[in-house]
Write a structure and sequence with these properties.
The complex is a heterodimer of chains A (486) and B (751).
Chain A (H helix, E strand, L loop, with lengths): L3 H8 L3 H14 L34 E6 L8 E3 L2 E9 L2 E8 L5 E8 L18 E2 L3 E6 L3 E6 L5 E5 L17 E3 L2 E6 L6 E6 L5 E6 L11 E5 L2 E8 L2 E5 L6 E5 L11 E3 L2 E8 L7 H8 L8 E2 L8 H7 L6 E2 L2 H7 L9 E8 L4 E2 L1 H4 E5 L11 E3 L2 E6 L3 E5 L6 E7 L11 E3 L2 E5 L4 E6 L6 E6 L9 E3 L2 E5 L3 E6 L2
Parallel strand pairs in A: 17-23
Antiparallel strand pairs in A: 1-35, 2-3, 3-4, 4-5, 6-7, 7-8, 8-9, 10-11, 11-12, 12-13, 14-15, 15-16, 16-17, 18-19, 19-22, 20-21, 22-24, 25-26, 26-27, 27-28, 29-30, 30-31, 31-32, 33-34, 34-35
Chain B lengths: L7 H7 L2 E4 L5 E3 L5 E6 L5 H18 L2 E6 L3 H5 L3 E4 L6 H7 L11 E8 L2 E8 L2 H14 L3 E3 L2 E3 L13 E4 L5 E6 L12 H13 L4 E5 L10 E2 L2 E2 L11 E2 L15 E2 L10 H21 L3 E6 L17 E2 L5 E2 L10 H17 L5 E4 L11 H9 L10 H10 L7 H18 L16 E7 L1 H7 L8 E5 L4 H6 L2 H5 L16 E6 L13 H13 L4 E5 L7 H10 L7 H13 L4 H21 L12 H5 L6 H23 L5 H32 L3 H24 L4 H27 L1
Parallel strand pairs in B: 3-4, 3-5, 5-7, 11-12, 11-24, 12-17, 17-20, 20-21, 21-22, 22-23, 23-24
Antiparallel strand pairs in B: 1-2, 6-7, 6-10, 8-9, 13-14, 15-16, 18-19
Classes of the chains: A mainly beta (486), B alpha/beta (751).
Chain lengths: 486, 751
């Protein structure tokens, strides 16, 4: 933990000389146990601080504070003395809120008018992007506003970068979170129309690079930084392909074409290996066309007409309508909406893929591959200690050896039914598994399934929790709750 | 939002001639930034309300400024854009423009007519009675695309163009009684509603031109108190006193927003019987007042021969019976005309009427628990003495008939029921309650008999001196009722000649819009309803009284019924198109129709082959475990029907304009509930079979599946729970489904 008081006194005589450097350093130095982005500093979901965390907690037990926020499903992030999250505070009003992490007292609130919102599929919510922070600013995305940078001290808007509004064939809605890497804010927007990654100078808001991803379909994986033998790669999971990029330039370094069609989970990385678990609708033969004919072909005439496709896809529609009859049938649907170089179907996979390499590494970098019923379509895997843990609908959990893919246990009930949208997190030797119903099951981390507790947050919970400095932070759909041992 | 700031003169000159109709001038679209609604001078309250409703709708539809003025005031005379509300007697402006051309209307008829005044069209909206004027206003809203769901109004997806010309609409009902039954005994449906929820629904039913509310109350409920021979009524329970806790592990708990117990919101926190009765009276009085404000009449349906258990000592041979033993009735051999029956029964009726003096009708029903069987023959013979010799028949003949008819519930149960009813009719016939039929203003309340088996009703109808209305049910599902066409032939037709005045013996058919056997599952029986409506109109019945456990499912059926009551030959598919297309846009009705077609097949399947499949009772789910045999194949067909219906409804939702999506999403989730519910019951049957064959592994696995499916079913329902009735269904199915299954698993695990 940095003693800020001591640092300021020591640096006083050298202020003029080191001020510029210290500003850069200050911007980069976070508290030892901050949680500055989705699933923590390395997007692993694991808190490494040696602080005890509560096993049992509820609105009546080990609750440090509770704040009403309004609807939202973004995870909270913690930096310095602040907890920051977002909420929809009106039908067309979005708020970024900073609270004192010790007391929950509101420090500032920045509200922005959003304008008319696009359609969205529940339980997604317009306030879905988890912010990222470098300790100086807070960076967050909103579908109609683009990328925003707010001063962490005041909430003042530092810059705003308008981006294309994401478009979806199935009206899923945006749910992308940025990350901070060195002097960049990196943001991946895999929608169905114009998927891309962009890196923005975090000081100025200027675009440093943008890489198009035309062969992707809508997906929601967080871009993750992976250390590969001393150099960094930017790992992005998308339709059919796991890709590694140079984070400084956006150049694609390699691609491993082993994934399935719709990626809503985020990978985790360790020691140059990327772990991903995905459950995507349908089997391997069910390419996008199958889903579109099932759900968008609303008159079930085995074709898509213009009024069955969102207006934003008019150009794609025209491109696919080879015979110009105003209908997309058969292969025309593929040509319109799914890249011919990436005609991948559904399925259920858990994979370990070695980072590094160049070009197509499909044949060489897949370390192991499980096709089983364990993965969730939404909750990301957790890599903690010597286990890769996943949980899915129904409270069915599985654990695998990350080295080999061998199972510790598979599809066992953890005594909490319902949906699982939040990804599991871990700390203090425990795994916290949050169900949509607001119950948090606490397991002992390790190769044996051991349920320690089942705790009630008192409300629906979609957001992945955060852990920082011995505190657990849960964002239910209406509140932010902080638990800790007193 | 429409921009109505076009200059009036330019608008009148430019707007096109679209079609001709009615009185000879064309339908002209009007662009106006202000419309004046003219009511009479000091008009009747409902006519003013009609004007306010019309103005509210116009403002939302056309984004125009609205003004309501009284006839004779400055604003009434010259405004070219005017709607005149009322009739020639109540509104002098109507009298001026209509003159002698006002049509002859019944007390329920109304007019919507375009009239030319000073070269401009004005619209006349009114009936001979204020409530008919209100209906006229709501009909106009319908004509402009407003749809009246029980949850509220939905305005058309495509904004209509304002027109005051081209209307020439005179409406008279084919069915004069259009009644809504509310309150009951179980926690799902309207019994769970607080006053606010009743008010909302009654407001919507008024828009669908319903004109009567019938409240079904039971003596053990907290809606009345009385004392008989020194014994005070102390029982005051809703839902038979069952408690529905919402603890942490409650499936679908998001619907309860943190509440720890489910109950009727108006009775929440009322712990003593006195507190509950006070709250109950407020509730019923509030419903009555609201209904009257909307021009509806109110009937109270009571069962005066049943009493709460504290009165057992007053009734010789009485045994507590019914759920939770909250009812005592006359003993099997009790003589109906015994003072020990007559006086308490009369006292109960008097107590209800004294508590609710505003009611317009009292319905007397026999005991629901069929134990009063020993006096049937004597009662029958007494009844026969009032029937002409040539029309008499033997009791055995009657009982054989009721035993064999599916619609009434077959077998010995039906026989016991009819025997009880015979004794009850004998007792009710002699009740000293003439005084309670007189209202404070000197008018007379209606007295009707309710809940009589139709076979018995047919006999009663032969008593020429009997002048009493009947509220009859032909079966506990619309499909069963529709099968028994013979009743319409046996019961006398109603009076069709208006000149003869109101019917002396009006008959009204109970239309169960959801079969009890299907419990909380989504249902529809539109085709059966069509047949019943045809029979009702053909035979001159007064009308219908609808009932349902899950009122949220009813919009389609209510749309059809409300149309069919006013237009002979109305068809369900046309009603569906009329309901859906304005809300959802083109191309949606076809998917919804497919979905409802599947749902109707599913409803019929349960009704025909599994009448008690999901009947509401504490053992409604666990009984399938106890059955200890594999699920029948037809249940897979049932689930498949729900799946297809659900998929079609999701397609409809996807295609729909956003305005219509909440309506469709409700059904998507209700059908998802049904799919999971059936899945749960199937797994439970397999578990029971496995238990029987000592296959522990399969038992555990199937119980886990059953639990998970039930959980998912209730979660789906909770996503669209809109009122206390929906929450009641979730609470009930937790208590009688989810938790018993968990207990079964715990017991199996322990072994």
């Amino acid at each position: 933990m940095v003693d800020r008081t001591r640092w300021r006194r020591a640096s006083a005589p050298l202020v003029s000389g080191v001020l510029a450097m210290s500003c850069v350093l200050a911007a980069s130095i976070l508290r030892a146990e901050d949680w500055p982005q989705f699933r923590g500093p390395d997007a692993s979901g694991v808190s490494r601080a040696e602080r005890a965390l509560p096993t049992e907690f509820s609105l009546d037990q080990n609750l440090v504070w509770s704040v009403e926020l309004g609807p939202g499903i973004a995870s909270p992030v913690i930096s310095g003395e602040r907890v920051i999250t977002t909420a929809m505070t009106g039908a067309e009003e979005f708020a970024v809120v900073a609270l004192d992490r010790t007391t929950g007292r509101e420090l500032w609130r920045r509200t922005l008018a959003t304008g008319k919102l696009p359609p969205i599929t529940l339980p997604n919510n317009a306030a879905s992007s988890t912010p990222a922070t470098d300790g100086q600013r807070v960076y967050v995305h909103f579908c109609t506003l683009g990328l925003l940078a707010l001063e962490i001290e005041t909430g003042d808007l530092a810059w705003q970068l308008k981006l294309d509004e994401p478009q979806y064939l199935m009206d899923w809605g945006a749910a992308y979170s940025p990350i901070v890497y060195e002097n960049l804010v990196i943001y991946c927007q895999d929608d169905d129309l114009s998927p891309f990654i962009v890196a923005v100078d975090r000081q100025s808001g200027q675009v440093r690079w943008r890489t198009e991803r035309p062969d992707m379909l809508a997906g929601y994986a967080l871009p993750v930084i992976c250390d590969v033998g001393g150099h960094k790669e930017l790992i992005v999971a998308g339709t059919g392909k796991l890709k590694g990029y140079d984070p400084g330039s956006g150049q694609e370094l390699w691609t491993c074409n082993t994934l399935v069609r719709t990626i809503m989970t985020s990978p985790v990385v360790r020691d140059g290996v990327i772990y991903i678990s995905v459950q995507s609708y349908g089997d391997t033969d069910r390419v996008l066309k199958s889903a579109l004919l099932e759900w968008k072909d609303t008159n079930q005439d085995k074709a898509l007409t213009r009024d069955e496709v969102p207006p934003a896809f008019a150009e794609r529609f025209a491109k696919g309508d080879a015979n110009g009859d105003g209908r997309l049938e058969g292969d025309e649907i593929d040509q319109a909406f799914q890249a011919p170089t990436n005609m991948v179907g559904g399925g259920s996979i858990i994979q370990a893929i070695r980072a590094g390499g160049s070009g197509d590494v499909t044949a060489t970098h897949l370390l192991w591959n499980l096709k089983n019923r364990a993965p969730s379509n939404l909750a990301s895997p957790l890599l903690v200690g010597d286990q890769l843990f996943v949980v899915k609908r129904g409270g069915l959990a599985s654990s695998f050896d990350p080295t080999t893919g061998d199972k510790h246990w598979e599809i066992k009930r953890i005594n909490n039914l319902g949906e699982y949208y939040a990804s599991p997190v871990a700390g203090d030797g425990k795994i916290y598994v949050t169900g949509e119903n607001g119950f948090v099951v606490v397991l002992a981390a390790g190769p044996e399934l051991k349920v320690l507790a089942k705790n009630d947050l008192g409300g629906t919970c979609i957001a992945t929790p955060a852990i920082a400095d011995g505190r657990l932070y849960f964002r239910t759909t209406e509140k932010l709750l902080c638990f800790g041992l007193k | 939002m429409r921009d109505c700031r076009l200059l009036l003169a330019a608008a009148l000159g430019v707007l096109g001639y679209c079609a001709g109709s009615g009185d000879g001038f064309g339908i002209r679209v009007v662009a106006a930034d202000r419309i004046t609604v003219v009511v009479g001078t000091d008009p009747p309250r409902l006519e003013r309300f009609a004007a306010e409703e019309l103005a509210r709708q116009f403002k939302q539809l056309f984004a125009c400024e609205m003004a309501i003025v009284e006839a004779g005031s400055d604003g009434a005379a010259v405004d070219a854009t005017a709607v005149l509300v009322g009739n020639p007697q109540t509104n002098s402006e109507v009298r001026k423009v209509v003159g002698d051309a006002w049509p002859k209307l019944s007390d329920q008829g109304f007019v919507i007519r375009s009239i030319e005044r000073d070269g401009q069209p004005v619209l006349v909206v009114g009936g001979d009675r204020p409530v008919a004027t209100l209906w006229a206003a709501y009909e106009l809203g319908q004509q402009f695309g407003v749809r009246y769901l029980l949850t509220g109004d939905v305005y058309p997806a495509e904004a209509p163009k304002l027109r005051l010309s081209g209307f020439d609409f005179v409406a008279e009902p084919e069915l004069r009684t259009r009644a809504w039954q509310a309150i009951d005994d179980l926690p799902i449906g309207s019994s769970a509603w607080g006053l606010d929820e009743h008010r909302r629904v009654l407001g919507q039913l008024a828009k669908l031109k319903f004109n009567r509310v019938i409240l079904n109350v039971y003596p053990w409920q907290p809606f009345v108190d009385f004392e008989i021979d020194g014994t005070r009524k102390t029982t005051a329970e809703l839902f038979y006193g069952w408690k529905f806790l919402i603890d942490g592990d409650t499936a679908g708990r998001a619907a309860f927003k943190g509440a720890h117990e489910f109950t009727n919101p108006d009775l929440a926190g009322k712990s003593s019987p006195a507190e509950r009765v006070a709250a109950g009276k407020l509730l019923i009085n509030g419903i009555i007042a609201t209904a009257h404000e909307l021009g509806m009449t109110v009937g109270l349906c009571v069962s005066p021969l049943e009493f709460p258990p504290e009165f057992a000592s007053l009734l010789p041979g009485a045994e507590p019976c019914g759920p939770e033993k909250l009812t005592v009735g006359p003993g099997s051999q009790q003589i109906p005309h015994d003072e020990r029956v007559r006086q308490p029964a009369a006292a109960q009726v008097q107590a209800f009427v004294a508590t609710y003096p505003q009611i317009d009708a009292i319905y007397l029903s026999p005991p629901r628990v069929a134990t009063w069987t020993g006096y049937a023959l004597t009662a029958w013979e007494r009844m026969l003495r009032q029937i002409a010799t040539e029309r008499r028949s033997a009791l055995d003949e009657l009982l054989d008939r009721v035993k064999s008819i599916r619609a009434g519930g077959a077998g010995e149960a039906a026989v016991a029921r009819v025997k009880t009813q015979l004794a009850a009719i004998d007792a009710l016939d002699r009740l000293p309650i003439e005084g309670v039929l007189e209202r404070p203003d000197g008018s007379r309340r209606e007295a009707q008999v309710a809940g009589i088996d139709p076979a018995l009703a047919a006999v009663l109808a032969r008593i020429e001196s009997l002048h009493v209305g009947m509220l009859l049910g032909f079966g506990d599902s619309a499909q069963r009722a529709a099968e028994v066409e013979a009743w319409f032939e046996e019961l006398p037709d109603g009076a069709k000649d208006e000149a003869a005045g109101p019917e002396a013996n009006p008959k009204c058919l109970v239309l169960p819009l959801a079969a009890d056997g299907a419990g909380a599952l989504p249902q529809t029986a539109a085709m059966s309803l069509q047949k019943l409506i045809t029979d009702l109109t053909k035979h001159g019945w007064s009308g219908y009284a609808v009932s349902s456990r899950m009122p949220g499912d009813l919009d389609y059926q209510l749309q059809f019924l409300s149309r069919a009551a006013w237009k002979s030959g109305a068809a369900p598919d046309a009603a569906l198109e009329e309901l859906v297309t304005p809300m959802c846009g083109p191309g949606v009705t076809a998917r919804v129709a497919l979905a409802f077609s599947q749902l109707e097949q599913a409803t019929a399947l349960i009704d025909e082959q599994d009448a008690g499949f999901a009947a509401v009772a504490p053992d409604m789910v666990i009984k399938h475990y106890a059955a200890a045999e594999a699920p029948p194949e037809r249940w897979q067909k049932l689930q498949d029907l729900y799946v297809v219906a659900m998929n079609e409804m999701y397609r409809a939702h996807d295609r729909s304009h956003p305005r219509g999506r909440p309506y469709l999403r409700y059904y998507c989730k209700r059908l998802e509930f049904a799919v999971e519910y059936v899945g749960s019951v199937q797994a439970l049957r397999r578990a029971g079979a496995a238990k029987k064959s000592a296959d522990q592994e399969t038992l555990i696995a199937e119980l886990e599946k059953a639990i998970e499916s039930m959980y998912n079913a209730l979660s789906a329902l909770s996503e669209v729970a809109r009122d206390s009735g929906d929450r009641g269904a979730i609470a009930m199915l937790n208590a009688w489904g989810y938790r018993p299954l968990q207990q079964a698993l715990a017991d199996a695990d322990a072994q």
